[in-house]
């Protein structure tokens, strides 16, 4: 591929900025200064940009602890998105794997790997997603049973069986804490499922998605690259 594309794919600048940097002699390939932006390079070339070696990686994978108040979109003209929270130089084509509501927190995978995203989101694959929820009302065993059987939402939509684990019930506050595991990803699914049993979600956080579990060391808004072990669990 062209040298300027190699560098822009790696997020170090725009194609036009990079053309100028290359012409000025800021880039070497395999130890030789190259001033032609169209110079052909490959993944095994040693490319050094302003003193830093830039290794070509086709795909990148980040775990983000999404904070409340941020939208799960790739870009937006007016609002900050989850992609803006990734601190490293911006790679092109990053997107969140699925969406969390603006007020939902927790695990969000950010990548440019469309095939992985398809595998995790495809309704055929029934990937488990675990959420921690705080809700109004006092959950009980009959709610667990209704979730287990597969709830019918207010608009008639039938949900697959889901696991509801009641963590605490606060009689005085008339509220409950629970963990819920769902295997599909319909719009506002968790909130609508609780709504179907007369409870309102007041706080929602995704704890895991398939084999990926939210790193407890990540504060809301923080992200990190997936580890080699995590990548392996995803079959990468
Ligand atoms: N279910 C919801 O209702 N909201 C989310 O953000 C995720 C799952």
- Total domain modules: 3
- CA distance, first residue to last residue: 24 Å
Which class do the helix and strand fractions yield?
alpha+beta
Specify the CATH architecture of the largest domain. Answer: 2-Layer Sandwich
Overall spatial form:
elongated
Number of strands: 13
| Topology order in helix (H) and strand (E) letters | HHEEEEEEEHEHEEHEEEH
Strand residue percentage: 25-35%
Please state the oligomeric state of the protein chains shown: single chain
CATH superfamily of the largest domain: Pseudouridine synthase I, catalytic domain, N-terminal subdomain
List of distinct ligands in this structure: uracil
Q: Summarize the amount of helix as a percent range.
A: 10-25%
Radius of gyration: 22 Å
CATH C-level of the largest domain: Alpha Beta
Given as residue ranges, the uncertain stretches (5+ residues, pLDDT < 50) are none
Q: What name does the CATH topology of the largest domain carry?
A: Alpha-Beta Plaits
Main pleated-sheet profile: 9 strands, mixed
Counted by DSSP, the helix tally is 6
The overall pLDDT average reads 95
Structural description of this entry:
With 236 residues, this protein is an alpha+beta fold. It folds into 3 domains: 3-54, RNA-binding S4 domain (Structural Genomics Hypothetical 15.5 Kd Protein In mrcA-pckA Intergenic Region, Chain A), CATH 3.10.290; 61-123 and 212-233, Pseudouridine synthase I, catalytic domain, N-terminal subdomain (Alpha-Beta Plaits), CATH 3.30.70; 128-209, 2-Layer Sandwich (Alpha-Beta Plaits), CATH 3.30.70.1560. The protein is 20% helix and 27% strand. The strands form 2 sheets. Strands 5, 6, 7, 8, 9, 10, 11, 12 and 13 form a 9-stranded mixed beta sheet that branches. Strand 9 (163-170) and strand 10 form a beta hairpin. The relative contact order is 0.15. The model has no long low-confidence stretch (mean pLDDT 95). It binds uracil. Residues 100-101, 104, 188-191, 204 line the site of uracil.
